[in-house]
Amino acid sequence: MGICDERVVIVTGAGGGLGREHALAFAAEGAKVVVNDLGVSNHGEGGSDGPAQQVANEIKEMGGEAIANTDSVSEFATGKRIVEQALDSFGRLDVVVNNAGFLRDRMFVSTSEEEWDAVINVHLKGHFCISKHACEYWRAQSKAGETVDARIINTSSGAGLQGSVGQGTYSAAKAGIAGLTLVQAAELGRYGVTSNAIAPAARTRMTEAIFTDMKPPEGDAFDESHPGNVSPLVVWLGSPDSREVSGRVFEVKGGLIGVSDGWRDGPTYDKNAKWAPDEIGAKVMELIGEALPPQKVHGT
C-alpha cells in the first residue's frame, strides 16, 4: 500500500532528471503514471521517444502501471491529447505534475525573440496547456456531483522567486508559474482541486553544467543535490493527505523543505492628496528604509 494507491498521475518532462524521479516515486506509492517527455536536448532541440518509454518500462519492471507519451506540452491541442491518453488508458486523472522545461540562458540584452518564445512556451504556456484540459475534466466531474480530490503541482524555481543573472526569460516564466499557482488555488478549490508549486534545487542536465557545486559527493556522504530528494514532497502533494494544502510554493533541496513567503504588502504612507513629483523621492526613500531588503538576485 502506498499513499497514492490507484491515483492516476501525469508527469511532464519525465524522461530524465526531476521528472523521472517523480514518476518512479509516484509508481512506488501505487500510482499509475503517464510518462510524458519529448526526448529533447537541454535547449529543446531534437526529440526521441526513448526516454519516456524507458521510464515507463522501469515502472512496469517494478510492478507498476505506466504509459509513455511524447506529445509537446507547449501546444494546446497536444496538451489535451495527453490528458485524454490518461483518461483512455486508466479511466481517470487525479494529478498533474508540470515539470517539463529547458534552458536558453542569455543575458537579457542579448536574448532573441525566438529564445524568449521557446522558453516561455515550454515553461509557462506548457503549464497552461496541460492543466487547462485537466481542470475542465475535474470541473465537469464536480458539477456532475462526483467527489473530486485532484492536484496540480507546478514547478517554479529560485530564479522565478528571486531572479537569476543570465536567465531573464527563464526567471520570468518561473515567476509567472508562481503567480499562476496562486490563482489556480483560489479558483479551483470549489471543484476539489488544489494547486501548489515547488522551487527545487537539484542536479539535473539543466543545472550540472552551471552549478559545479552540485557534483556528487564521494563515498557514502548524503547527496543533497540528487533529484530524487525532491520527489517525496511532490508525491505527498499529489496524495489525498495534502488536500488541506493549496496555494503554496515550497523550496526544496536535499533534506530541506521550506515554505516560500512571496510578495506581501510592505510599508505604506497615504498623503490623502495628489503628490507633486518633486516630493515623491523623500517619501519613497523613507518607505524603502522601513522595508525589509529584497533577497539578492542569484548570480549577484
Specify the CATH architecture: 3-Layer(aba) Sandwich
Largest sheet, strands/sense/barrel = 8 strands, mixed
Going by helix content, strand content and strand pairing, the class is alpha/beta
Q: Which descriptor suits the 3D outline?
A: globular
Summed up, the domain count is 1
- Distance from first to last alpha carbon: 47 Å
Count the strands? 8
**What string, H for helix and E for strand, traces the elements in order?**
EHEHEHEHEHHEHHEEH
Q: What's the helix count?
A: 9
Order of strands, widest sheet: 3-2-1-4-5-6-7-8
**Helix content range of the residues, please?**
40-55%
- Which CATH class is shown? Alpha Beta
User: Remind me, CATH topology?
Assistant: Rossmann fold
**CA gyration radius, whole angstroms:** 21 Å
Mean pLDDT: 93
Task: Summarize the SSE layout with pairings.
Elements: E1 8-11, H1 17-28, E2 32-36, H2 50-61, E3 65-69, H3 76-90, E4 95-97, H4 113-143, E5 150-155, H5 158-162, H6 168-188, E6 193-200, H7 205-208, H8 231-237, E7 249-253, E8 256-259, H9 277-290
Parallel strand pairs: 1-2, 1-4, 2-3, 4-5, 5-6, 6-7
Antiparallel strand pairs: 7-8
Helix pairs in contact: 1-8, 3-4, 4-6
Task: Describe what you observe in this structure.
The chain has 300 residues and is an alpha/beta fold. It is built from 9 helices and 8 strands. It has helices at residues 17-28, 50-61, 76-90, 113-143, 158-162, 168-188, 205-208, 231-237, 277-290, and strands at 8-11, 32-36, 65-69, 95-97, 150-155, 193-200, 249-253, 256-259. Strands 3-2-1-4-5-6-7-8 form an 8-stranded mixed beta sheet, sandwiched between helices. The relative contact order is 0.13.
